[in-house]
Amino acid sequence: MRKQSVVESPCTGVCTLDDQGVCAGCGRLMDEIVRWSAASVSEQHDIRERAARRRRPKDGNDDLSISSEPNLP
């Protein structure tokens, strides 16, 4: 297996920071955005992981589907 030498940027083109300084598009902080191109592959993976956690729903529920059907046995 070959080591990955390029990590795709999480940028979605929606570059707007919220009140906490988190990008609404990718979930990165400004300092993570700025240092992305100079970061090592390992650091880029870490940044992507932290950004993904920031973008998850606050209630901890990763299931974004909405169902009007009750859960019946």
Query: C-alpha Rg, in Å?
Result: 16 Å
**What is the tally of beta strands?**
0
Helical content band: 25-40%
Structural category is mainly alpha
Low-pLDDT runs of 5+ residues are: 62-70
Instruction: Please provide the ordered H/E string of secondary-structure elements.
Output: HH
Mean pLDDT across residues? 83
The amount of beta strand, in percent, is under 5%
Please work out how many helical segments DSSP would assign: 2
Distance between the termini: 45 Å
* Biggest sheet layout: none
Dominant shape: globular
Short description:
The protein is an all-alpha fold. The chain is 29% helix and 0% strand.
Which key features would you list for this structure?
single chain; 73 residues; mainly alpha; 2 helices; 29% helix
List the helices and strands and how they pair.
Blueprint: H1 30-35, H2 41-55
Describe the structure.
With 73 residues, this protein is an all-alpha fold. It has a domain of 45 residues. Helices cover 29% and strands 0% of the residues. It is globular.
